[in-house]
Amino acid sequence: MPSRFGAYALAAAIAVISSQSLAATLPTIEASASNQVPSCVTPGRLAAFLKARNGSLDDRYDDIGIYYMRHGEDLKIRWDMAFYQMVVETNTLRYTGDVKADQFNFAGLGATGGGVRGERFNSISDGVRAHLEHVAMYAGKHIDNPVAERTRKVQEWEVLVPYQKSLPGPMTFTQLGKKWAPSDRGYSDDINAIANEFNSFCNAADPRPELVALARGTSQTAAAPPATTKTKTVKVAAAAAGTADDSRSGLGAGSLIGISKSAQTARDAAASAQPEIINDKSADAPRISAGTPGSEPPAANQPDPIKTAMAAGKAKAAAPELKPETGKCRVWTASYGGSKAIIIKAKGDDSTNYTVLDVHAGKEKREADAYIAAYAKGGETVGEFQSPTAALDKAFELCPDK
Q: CA-CA distances (angstroms) from residue 206 to 211, 229, 316?
């Protein structure tokens, strides 16, 4: 009969083995065809996730996901896992450790404990870039002119080379954690827990789909689809006035629903139309041509899209006089899901476009600015309404059937 001590030892051994077997196995750092960021991980959903975890989140972090996506795709790494690591490192941007918020240091670079605060970066973008470069360096990528001094030193002194050579394959985030936080055996588990927690946000529509376009510096990507097919994102519809054809065209949309030329029929169609995902990348998905309303000049001639979206004017211009359009025009609808609506007027290549945009109360200007920056360059808000129906009525007054 085994002794009580032997039974306890056996139980302890089983517990250790069990604990080790349950340790999170995180993906490799480098992105590839078989190791991609899930399509539902978007800056808009990440922002909603941060606010759900931190009710007092500073507004300056509203768009931090843009920079993780932009720099992460540039470095070709799993930036989503790095974002979850940032959540762990900063306690969801509460900064309860040695590193302080004004350092824009999202991964504790140079913070070695004992009150040592680590490096300071000039902006959120620089801080995110520094974090992601350091992660990419772990995967063996050579970083030219790294943002962080610590990255430069670790790379120059080849600190990680022996560890990298000891691995049987590409480095994973689990293996990164063993060096990044060697005294914290639960580091990869913490990152994995954040990733699993975020999964619930994949089942909802992207609350700010325009941020994908801003992250990628494009005008035709608006939102990644939810993980399920139950929820769609932004709907875009068009009514062509003064033309006999029913051609599909859009202000940066990839999939459109046509509306009849009758104003009442158009309103009915808009009310009953099912939302359409507008960033379908399948082979048969329509694409925006150079002559499509809302298309842009070459990127070199364009201002930075993030700055464009964020630099809202402080002074309110006088409301323009609204007169019915005498030339060719089109009416569009788009929705961020709110109960209010605004009308955005923008000049296209061959017509004037009026977009009825459903917006959330209190966020009218922000959502209008973001939509204009992504899909209606040079456009302006010409009216605000308490309901989409009232806005659509006015839009068809401005762009009447001919």
A: 10, 13, 29
